[in-house]
What does this fold into?
Amino acid sequence: MESRRREIEVPPDRYEVVADDTVLTAELRSGIAVCLFDEVEEAGALLHLRCIIRSDKPADVTDTTLATELLLLDRCVAALREAAPAARNIQAKVAAHLPNDAAAQAASRSVLALVSHFLADAGAPARAPDIATGSGRKILFDPGMGRLLIRDAA
It folds into this structure.
């Protein structure tokens, strides 16, 4: 992606919507990036969700956590539709970095399944998510082209 283009870093538990030639970025470390776009309108959004397990007990995703994730996802989709009202074919790409702990991975996969079902219900189905563990991941998303680049984070 061209370095002269404007880039916006999306921090955890936030989203950014753009309707111009902008690259959205995020650094995933135990997190999920939901990238939404409409190729015709060249508008898009990136939602950066954290996957944090706060105890050494077996990981479980609470109703509060799921409700918060759904609320952010719903607001992100609504903001994209407001920014690009003519968008008729919203698509999604999802990338994730999962923690190394097996129980935390199970909780993260539950959130990924929830995101996938929400996107399908919202009319923006996503292909299977791109999932990795190990070192973090740097996400570069070009909404105008619907292009998602994933690199190892520094």
